[in-house]
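Researcher: I'd like a structural prediction for the single chain below. Treat it as a standalone chain; there are no partners to consider.
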Amino acid sequence: MAQRRTLTPGYVVVYPNREKSTSKVTKAAVALILLVSVALMLLITIGGWSKLEGLKAVNFAWCIAYLLIAYYVMVRWTRGLLPIAAALAVLLLILSVISATGISGTSWFDRAHEGFAPPQSLFGGDGLDPNMLGLLPVILAPVQILLVVCAMRGFAQAWNVELEVPEDEARRRGFTPTGPPPPSPAAA
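Model: Treating it as a single chain, here is the predicted structure.
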């Protein structure tokens, strides 16, 4: 069973590290980088659908995971998902480097030569140009490096630190106290 917090009457919980402008910028940067990563992954997946080998379902699951992480980081200041985002970014970095360089076989750039069929889109039409599909993993790699850096910076900012402060000080800091209103004195 979860422990229940007991607050001193007249006090509220505030998160001082969330007030800092650097924390707010880092939070927004992590969410934005996650959204850019999702857009790039979807472009690669949809634009090169017929030539993708086996990670089609994984790509969509990765996109959903990144969208959920972006939501929880942006809306709920969930610090615990930042190392998970960084770990997923390292894995995606490895996959994008392999895809861009053709270490495991043929790269997207190689498919622009004669003898290769053009990729088909998920929706049945022509997919993206092979050179464009080769460029997208090249762009995705530094985006993932940036995600790792920003996520670890956010993790180090300790967004989870709580302080119990009087309601007046919390209002002065810009927090709106939540919970039941303090009891009003009885009229005599």
